[in-house]
Amino acid sequence: MNKELQGIFKGFSKLSKEERLQALQEVGALTSSEADYLSRGGLKDTTLGEKFIENVIGYFQLPLGVATNFNIDGKDFVIPMAVEETSIVAAVCKSAKWIRETGSITTEVVGSDIIGQIQCAKVKDFAKFEKQLLSQKNFMIEIANREVAFGLVRRGGGVKDIQVRRVPRGDGTDMAVVHVLMDPCDAMGANIMNQVCEFLKEPIEQFTSEKVTMCILSNLVDSKITRAVVHIKTIDADLAEKIEEASLFAQQDPYRAATNNKGVLNGIDPILIATGNDWRAVEAGIHAYAARDGQYRSITRWFRDGEGGLKGVFEAPLIVGTVGGVTTLHPTAMMCMKMLGTKSANELSRVIAAVGLVQNLGALKALTTVGIIEGHMKLHTKNLALGAGAEEREIPMVQKKLEEILAVRKRISLSNAIDVLKELRDSATRASSHPQ
Ligand code: MEV
Fold first, then answer.
1. Which fold has domain 3-107+225-369?
2. Segment 204-226 mean pLDDT
3. Is-catalytic flag, 231?
4. Do 3-107+225-369 and 373-430 fold alike per CATH?
5. HSE of 184 in the Cβ direction (CA atoms, 13 Å)?
6. Fewest 10 Å CB contacts: which of 57, 70, 284, 383?
7. Pocket test for ligand 1, best of 83, 86, 370, 372 (most atoms within 8 A of CB)
8. What is the pLDDT of residue 411?
9. Known catalysed reaction(s) (predicted)?
10. Would you identify the CATH topology of the domain 373-430?
């Protein structure tokens, strides 16, 4: 265990922003110029943004925080999270601390290949198409690797297999879908996969005399699955049962599964964003995988281990890259990647899966005990104060009053904040017009 990191994790949330940046520099997670860059508000010059997208008019800023207390596969991490929702970072740090004290997080990636699809919408004879295509499979793998994926081949990756799937058109006939399986090494692989598929269009048409109608990668990468396991060795029996019940709820009921998975993604998306990864692709893959047996289910499972402990498992495709794209172009993403210190795309994927699972644990624990409002709303009081129009100096007073209301009524809203602020200002006016 990294003693230095454990040291800065302690009381990190109580530090000021400047002290946090200082602490991160002390453990080598940030350089002084990176801390300075963050202090100055990050990227401002839109030249880079204009290289990424069209019609640029500025940047949209999200808060960047760090998740502390994570020890994954025996290694400590400082985990950057770019997210706007109150209490996500606090909740995940709290659960990670609990696990650090009483359990472990282990992870693995099973499989290595991503999937590309080549559609032939109207094949005359599927069996003939399949036979012709598979007879040329090795040749097609060879030319795709030689002409397009040679960079990956040099690093031990590249196209590994070509398969054919029969997909019913719904009118009694079939379409043929060719799957290209490719190891993208440390890249997310979308661009190279699309190039491989488009390159194979011509040979496929030549070998089969059928028309290729479209080529694109698939985000449902069930050929490369990331798994994270949390094991809490001792836990209150009642709490363990409640979490198991909550998990069953999310397994069996799609309405609950959607919200459960949103909570898991609360941990996943912020790291994807901070590291410049394509969160839409990961979201699409996770949701599709969650529905793979025909019913949308939870991508996490929690169960008692039979020895007084609790186990949780996250299992889904979580395809990320550590080379190419925004990850290696956006200065904040590059800084976040460095801060994380993951050595490969697989390690990054494993860390992200672990954070998603731990985020889920925190949500289930809160939901099955005190409820979500208590922790969330306590942290949300500042947003409400700001939303009501409170000025910097008024915020602590409005927050304090809102906390009192929350403690008594168990709920607070923006209208409470507006009332509290009005009262505060009225009494300040009264006091100034009637000085003692
Ligand atoms: C809120 O952002 C996330 C939760 O709804 C997740 C869940 O219900 O498991 C609390």
1. 3.90.770
2. 97
3. no
4. no
5. 27
6. 57
7. 372
8. 86
9. (R)-mevalonate + 2 NAD(+) + CoA = (3S)-3-hydroxy-3-methylglutaryl-CoA + 2 NADH + 2 H(+)
10. Helicase, Ruva Protein; domain 3 (1.10.8)
> Nearest-5° angle of CA 353, CA 273, CA 299?
30
Query: Taking the domains of the chain in order of start, what are their residue ranges?
Result: 3-107+225-369, 114-218, 373-430
Q: Is 262 in the pocket of ligand 1 (CB under 6 A)?
A: yes
Q: Is 236 a catalytic residue?
A: no
Mutate to test the pocket of ligand 1, among 247, 248, 265, 266 (most ligand atoms within 8 A of CB): 266
Q: What does CATH list as the number for 114-218? A: 3.30.70.420
Q: Are 44 and 332 in contact (CB under 8 A)?
A: no
Q: Which residues contact 32 (CB under 8 A, 6 or more apart)?
A: 25
Q: Is the CB of 235 under 6 A from ligand 1?
A: no
Handedness of CA 322, 72, 335, 90 (dihedral sign): positive
3-state secondary structure of 225: strand
Of the listed 137, 376, 382, 419, which one is catalytic? 376
Asked if residue 328 has pLDDT above 90, the reply is: no
pLDDT of residue 436: 60
Q: Which ligand 1 atom is nearest residue 372's CA?
A: 10
Q: Is the CB of 422 under 6 A from ligand 1?
A: no
| 266 within ligand 1 shell (Cβ under 6 A) | yes
Q: Out of 4, 73, 85, 222, pick the active-site residue.
A: 85
Q: Does residue 241 have an active-site annotation?
A: no
Tell me which residue has tokens 């994807």.
272
CB atoms under 10 Å from CB of 212, counted, come to 20
Give the separation between CA 243 and CA 226, rounded to whole angstroms. Answer: 22
Q: Quote the pLDDT of residue 173.
A: 92
346 lines ligand 1 (CB under 6 A): no
